[in-house]
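Onboarding guide, step 5: your first structure request.
Type a short instruction followed by the sequence, for example:

Predict the 3D structure of this protein.
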Amino acid sequence: MISLAPGILNEIQRHAENAYPEEGAGVLIGKEQGGNRVVDRVLPLTNNFEVELRNRRYMITPQDMINAEEFADEMGLEIIGIYHSHPDHPAQPSDFDHEQALPWYSYIITSVNQKTAAESRSWRLTEERIFVEEKLLLE
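The system replies with structure tokens like these:
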């Protein structure tokens, strides 16, 4: 289960809408507590994928991840996942998402239809490389 502090889902969805028709992405910052995850902050990032493919792909650079880890450390938190959007596609992992994902992280995907956020769902990749949906709670 993953729970989002007040306003977090709104931040994710606004970023997704503003990035449309490209994918928007960022990191989820919080803590894991007793097997449950709590997202206290998000850090929106720039999509660094090739320009002509950003409507179906996103890339977070290694330097962005280092900066995000430092940002989280300063607050006594950690990166617990990644969020990104799917312009005009469902809020479920694509084949590309599956290839790029790492076990342990939560992946919140927001579907954006014609510039309006429609649905957000969270997923985790198991050690067997199977995506399973995790319950997404709003605090």
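Each response can be followed by summary notes, for example: The beta strands are 2-4, 25-33, 36-45, 78-87, 106-113, 116-125, 131-134, 136-138.
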